[in-house]
Amino acid sequence: MHQFLPYAWFGGSCVPFAEATLSVATHALHYGTGAFGGMRGLPNPDDPGEVLLFRVDRHARRLTQSARLLLTELTEETVLAAIGAFLQANKPRKPFYLRPFVYTCGLGISPRLHDVETDFLIYGIEMGDYLSPEGVTCRFSSWTRQEDRSLPLRGKISGAYITSSLAKTEAVKSGFDEALLLNSRGKVSEASGMNLFIVRDGVLITPSVDQDILEGITRASILELARAMDIPVLERPVDKTELFVADEAFLSGTAARVTPIRRLESTDLPNRRPVMEKLRDRLTAITEGRDPAYEHWVTRIRIDA
Fold this sequence. Notes:
Blueprint: E1 7-10, E2 13-16, H1 27-31, E3 34-36, E4 39-44, E5 47-54, H2 56-69, H3 76-90, E6 96-104, E7 118-126, E8 136-144, H4 161-173, E9 178-182, E10 188-191, E11 195-200, E12 203-206, H5 217-228, E13 233-235, H6 240-244, E14 248-253, E15 257-264, E16 267-268, H7 274-287, E17 298-302
Parallel strand pairs: 8-9, 8-15, 12-13
Antiparallel strand pairs: 1-2, 3-6, 4-5, 4-6, 5-17, 6-7, 9-10, 11-12, 11-14, 14-15, 15-16
């Protein structure tokens, strides 16, 4: 059961969460014509009157780009100002997850992106571990990841997540924690809502951006950290069988953070994960504001004013 933060940003101001309601005729509800983001934050362990947000500028930029794919103008400044007001209203005292959402709020039954009103909202939930940090079990989904020529995969378009939903439920109903999707060319794309990494012979490998993946912000952060830490990196197509013989395999995402894959279908994967653990430890230190070299990845917002 989610513990929602008490206030939402809705209709241009902060209102009690229970009052942030939509009409049953809302356009986006019927056609998936929305785009969302996901951001993590936590109270500063050394100063509970301060909130730390991880790469909020990148998240705001991606949301504005997603909005553009919906023919909607939403500025980064608008997103960041709303997040600031939202945090001041809620004053979170536990780690949390924010869900900003831009959507067609007009009422009507015609699928379109022109001549329809749009709006922007934010809500939040308290969130610890989304997936078990000890590792998850995965299966390959019978569903195929969409192609960029059929959906704008550079954005987190809400309607695109029907495939993720089908894949996730298929995995859970068949005894696994998570699903891995292949793309239409038979290469590994991503999980239901996370990017994928494997390690082979000390090289960190992840499906490249031409494999119908979401260009994840945690993914980009891991790649940048790996290069700075002199870990060899390859972004390229990944075959299904490579996962079964990988030295390490893990998922990344804002909610999932860095989560190892411990079993893939009927194959147990190695439980020694030195590359992943180095990257996860470094990323944790950064998000908690303990790494001066990456202080620019953390936005500090006072909430006790």
